[in-house]
Amino acid sequence: MSRVKWHAFLVTIYLLTKSEGWELTNTSTPIIEFKNVGLSYDDNEVLKNIDLSLEAGKFYTLLGPSGSGKTTILNLISGQLTATHGDILFEGNIINDVPVEKRNMNTVFQDYGLFPNMNVFDNVAFGPTIKRMSKTDINAKVTEMLDLVKLSDYADREINELSGGQRQRVAIARALANDPEVLLLDEPLSALDYKLRKDMQYELREIQQRLGITFVFVTHDQEEALAMSDWIFVMNDGVIQQNGSPEDIYDEPINHFVADFIGESNILDGIMKTDYLVHFTGKDFENVDAGMRPNERVEVVLRPEDLDLTTIENGKLVVTIDDQSFRGDYYEITALDDDGNEWQVQATNKAEIGERVGLTFDPEDIHIMRFNESEDDFDARLESYEDDADDAKE
Amino acid sequence: MMPKSKRQRQFFYIIPYGIWLVLFVIAPLVLLVFQSLTTPTGHFTLHNYAIYFASGTYLRMTFNSVWYAFLITAVTLIVSYPMAYLLNQLKQKQFWLLLIILPTWINLLLKTYAFIGLLSKSGTVNNFIGLWGVVPQQLLFSDWSFLLVAAYIEIPFMILPIFNSLAEINPRLEQASRDLGANRWQTLRRVIVPLSMPGVKAGIQAVFIPSLSLFMITRLIGGNRVITLGTAIEEHFLVTQNWQLGSTIGVVLIVAMVITMILTRDRARRSARKGR
User: Fold this and answer.
1) CATH number given to A32-251
2) How many CB pairs under 8 A join A and B?
3) Chain A interface includes B273 (CB < 8 A)
4) What is the mean pLDDT of the segment spanning B250-261?
5) Does residue A175 contact residue A138 with C-beta atoms inside 8 Å?
6) Alpha-carbon gap: A8 to the closest alpha carbon of chain B (Å)
7) Which CATH number fits domain B56-227: 1.10.10.10, 2.40.37.10, 1.10.3720.10, 1.10.10.970?
8) Which of A159, A312, B84, B129 is at 20 to 30 A from B202, Cα to Cα?
9) C-alpha of A226 from chain center
10) Could you report the per-residue pLDDT of A113-164, keeping only the tens digit for each?
């Protein structure tokens, strides 16, 4: 057993003895759980052995490129698709065979799916009407929902009289009118223009917090995911690559895919010579990572905003400015080092194209990614750094 | 020499069909109305209409025409809607659709005669049930055989527009309806059927209007037991040579068709015009 695992084991035992009566219950049941869920069409495995657990009342995002399986997960939760294997649980009960209409969740579709033969009011009233609520209750519900999405004056409008953003709001109101415990959102903002999308991100987050229900949001837009979510699942090739808070995923990507997909990254091949010493671009650098085999081949990630331009003497690396564009609050600079590696830098100071400058960064800005590291091992490694940091303080 | 202005060019394109339209649509219509309003010597009169509306026979024929056209339409619709719905969910829809359209390429009279062969006393159906010792039945010359053959001929014209309007419905709407708690039946009733109404109306037009003036089938299959306005017109023009009264019935029939058109007009067009 490695030192890290042994440590984690001892901590677990310690916590177990402290918990009252050795009980692990009353940690609330997850609202949605996937246990080894997979989905295949013929020989094509769309989703591979997914395990996940969602707590009630949080804003979750499934983030990934198209074809990564994120919408498939959403459709499995809603019941539009049936898993090839594995169990899906809702509040602790297996719901594999519960049909779509009997699940207490509703969906906001990418193309909205509003009924063109009904006006705004009737669209929002659809769910309550099916539930056979009384006329007064339906009226009250629809009014409340249209208020929530700020469309109170639009009840009598036909769907084809609405703009894209207004249709979006009607779709949200319609899905929420059923009082779902979980709201599923399938790339709902992708058809809106930039400004409107920003506003809706903010508003959706606000609605989620006001209602306190669980949102599961699917998107391929990493900025959107970082801005809105409590917790992100990054997906690729039918596998969850990494899950964590937006900060965790941005600061500590687990592998090349995540580092590349979330934000801008400089990714280089490197070697961990010993603990706290990494070698890349022909030089050794002090860093904060440890626990790897001596001389293990790794990938090194440096975020553009963590890099600064300085004089050649003060630089840890020397680079030549290749391109530069002004982005309002910073300059986006492309530079080449002597090995021919391309560096993305977000600098506050301007440089001249062709100029040779120094590049500087702090040891903690160097993120090390091991090849084929599982999420559990990765999390354990990061935790051990925190412990080491605590030890160092004492 | 090509005409220059846009209007002149458009006029140019209209000429071939325009000649057709004037000779075979407008002129006959004018003649029909004219004949119905004149005596054989060419004086204006409303006498023909008076005869028509005073006669119990003609009114009964009118009622018969409308009633049988209604029955044919109803039978056709009941058979066609579920079929069109099913067709839409099949994988090889184009193939099955082709099978349904195929009979329409064959001449109407040929198909009608084929049914005489099937339904006559020594026909295929009687031979078949004869295997169980059933005595040959009188199948031809009945209301049922008339309805059967008429519906058989009209079914493709009903399926096609309904199929098209169902195919246009975004499958997402069915998903959304289920997602909002509606079961299959509620989804069909509240979403699919209302959205396919334009197709249903087009189908009703395509079946009901031609059915008003059916006459060959009424004679060959119905054995002239059912006399419709189509039969009456044929009799007046070819047998009794009373063109004036024949024209009058023709005018009444055309008015009935126009009324049907107005009643089944697509209301969606109105809201679409308002919206876009």
Assistant:
1) 3.40.50.300
2) 66
3) no
4) 89
5) no
6) 43
7) 1.10.3720.10
8) A159
9) 6
10) 999 999 999 999 999 999 999 999 999 999 999 999 999 999 999 999 999 9
